Amino acid sequence: MNTPDAAAPPPMPTPAARRFKLLRYAGEYRQSSLIICILLWSILSYLFISHYVLMAVEVKGLSMSPTLLDGQRYLLYRCTYLWRTPRKGEIVVIEDPEDHGLSVKRIVGLPNDQIEVRRDGGVYVNDARLPEPYLTSAAAYASGERPVHPTKLGGEEYFVLGDNREVSADSRIYGPVPRKNILGLLSKSN
């Protein structure tokens, strides 16, 4: 009489089958690790590039019109000033000293310059009138509505103005801007 055996144990896997199973798990682990590394490096690269190399900026407001119009988008080159200092006439993005937001302004005074905005609307740098071909005549005249008595800039200070002086909140209001507040050079510099 043949009696059924209690549950028969499963057959033992062969050494080759065990090795194949281990290699399959190792391959899946390597592939998962690779995907995680790629995602991590992508995020870190994005953060590095946007913080130190370049970033997109949208102009908000009319303080730089007609040079830059409200809603236009530009690239901000953040690494430019790692190799050189900001220059007079360049359009830069600054951290606004009053509200700590971002503002687009033009540099008109460099460290150690003496700046004066006179009632005639002229900006004088070291007692010489600054040529400003980028301004409309109305914008130049509006400069004089908020005159600035002679101001001597420090060794790390810059004087910035908007091209539309009538509506621009700039160094005439909050004073010179420290170098650390200049974030980078805008892609369109006149």
Written account of the structure:
The strands form 2 sheets. Strands 1-2-11-3-4-9-10 form a 7-stranded antiparallel sheet. It has a 4-stranded antiparallel sheet with strand order 7-6-5-8, with no helix packed on it. The longest helix has 39 residues, at 15-53. The protein is built from 4 helices and 11 strands, in the order H-E-E-H-E-E-E-E-E-H-E-E-H-E-E. Helices cover 28% and strands 26% of the residues. The termini are far apart. The chain has 190 residues and is an alpha+beta fold.
Catalogue the unreliable spans: none
Strand order of the largest sheet: 1-2-11-3-4-9-10
The largest pleated sheet is described as: 7 strands, antiparallel
Tally of contiguous helical segments: 4
Content of β-strand: 25-35%
Share in helix: 25-40%
Number of strands: 11
User: How far from one another are the termini?
Assistant: 104 Å
Q: What is the mean predicted local confidence, pLDDT?
A: 86
- Taking all Cα atoms into account, the compactness measure Rg is 31 Å
- The helix-and-strand class reads alpha+beta
Write the H/E string, N to C. HEEHEEEEEHEEHEE
Which quaternary structure do these chains form? single chain
3D shape: rod-shaped
